[in-house]
Structure to design on (387 residues):
């Protein structure tokens, strides 16, 4: 479940805006910042250090965010917050996809088609455009219908959850709440269609569409937890790689750098050094392709860059001789080929197989890729999800 226990997260975010997002902030007199991101691309956005998960979710739901990036030299102390952020991003994409799928199915159901045949001047189809203001005015007079329709949709869904003996009482609560959240985040246009045809002939088809989609998306939501754990595992892995490297420089002659990085005082010194040298791990979430990229709206690309100062140089040399110095493989191969005894390898494979299975079960496409630039110890790990 999207962990909303912490209402404020403290993380140094670079939030890259879509065109809609940029024009919203500019029209509200908010100055945009120009960021140089981990892949050396320059983009415009805003920075946040202290924010509510809901504010990020709301911006994603209205298509204002194209990418979020964090760069830190250590992630352990922010573990829970990064996992919370990751879950919020995944949930936001699921809410949007759910809404989009419902709309696409509602406009082709029989009662809507019959309405279109009888009312050619009031068509409801993919080209229909109402402003939010118009829709709000229409729906204001239908508050009781909305409540009744909501209850009609949810009753059998809730009965199904409550009678499922595989769920713990806590899981039952989570799913009851989640089913409401999906409905609460339906667009005004979808509610306009639901209330328009409520109790009319053919409404049972609309109910069936909504209930099936709710079930499918509640199942898909299970991957949010796995993704957040996997992201954290990868970030910690990169962090420890950097720490071992730095420990070998600072404490030359000591064979086992592992003992050093788990000593709290020494670890603090290593982190200080890494910060001084700007040796950061970069973590980014790239969302969909905006409202214009048909078919890519439900895509999420998570990338980890274990970056060093020669990143640009390395990138250029790679591009110039493409495959000569580039080891491109799947994340499973990456884990399997890690040096023996490198902490976390088994755990990583374990999380990865869980994530892979969870995605397959709920029809979420998942692929992973690792680019390793051997000349510089630079690793770029990419996880791609299509929800």
């Amino acid at each position: 479940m999207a962990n909303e226990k912490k209402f404020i997260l403290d993380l140094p975010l670079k939030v890259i805006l879509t065109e809609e997002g940029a024009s919203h902030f500019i029209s509200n007199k908010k100055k945009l910042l120009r960021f140089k991101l981990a892949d050396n691309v320059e983009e415009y956005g805003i920075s946040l250090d202290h924010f509510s998960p809901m504010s990020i979710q709301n911006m994603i739901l209205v298509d204002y965010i194209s990418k979020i990036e964090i760069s830190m030299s250590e992630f352990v102390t922010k573990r829970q917050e990064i996992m919370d952020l990751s879950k919020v991003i995944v949930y936001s994409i699921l809410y949007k996809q759910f809404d989009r799928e419902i709309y696409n199915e509602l406009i082709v159901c029989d009662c809507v088609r019959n309405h279109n045949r009888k009312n050619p001047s009031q068509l409801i189809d993919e080209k229909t455009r109402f402003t939010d203001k118009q829709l709000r005015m229409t729906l204001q007079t239908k508050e009781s219908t909305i409540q009744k329709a909501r209850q009609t949709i949810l009753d059998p869904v809730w009965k199904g959850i409550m009678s499922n003996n595989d769920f713990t009482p806590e899981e039952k609560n989570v799913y009851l709440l989640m089913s409401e959240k999906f409905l609460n985040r339906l667009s005004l246009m979808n509610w306009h269609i639901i209330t328009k045809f409520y109790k009319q002939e053919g409404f049972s088809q609309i109910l069936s569409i909504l209930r099936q989609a709710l079930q499918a998306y509640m199942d898909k939501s299970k991957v949010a937890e796995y993704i957040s754990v996997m992201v954290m595992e990868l970030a910690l892995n990169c962090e420890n790689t950097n720490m071992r490297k730095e420990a070998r420089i600072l404490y030359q002659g000591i064979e086992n750098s592992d003992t050093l990085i788990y000593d709290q005082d020494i670890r603090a010194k290593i982190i200080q050094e890494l910060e001084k040298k700007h040796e950061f791990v970069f973590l980014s979430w790239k969302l969909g392709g905006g409202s214009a990229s048909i078919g890519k709206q439900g895509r999420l690309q998570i990338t980890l860059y274990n970056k060093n100062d020669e990143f640009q140089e390395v990138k250029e040399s790679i591009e110039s001789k493409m495959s000569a110095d580039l080891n491109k493989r799947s994340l499973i191969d990456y884990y399997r080929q890690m040096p023996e005894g490198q902490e976390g390898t088994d755990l990583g494979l374990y999380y990865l197989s869980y994530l892979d299975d969870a995605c397959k079960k709920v029809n979420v496409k998942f692929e992973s890729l690792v680019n390793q630039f051997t000349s510089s110890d630079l690793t770029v790990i990419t996880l791609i999800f299509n929800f």
Remarks:
- Strands lie at 9-17, 33-36, 42-51, 65-72, 281-287, 299-306, 326-329, 365-373, 378-386.
- DSSP finds 15 helices and nine strands in the chain.
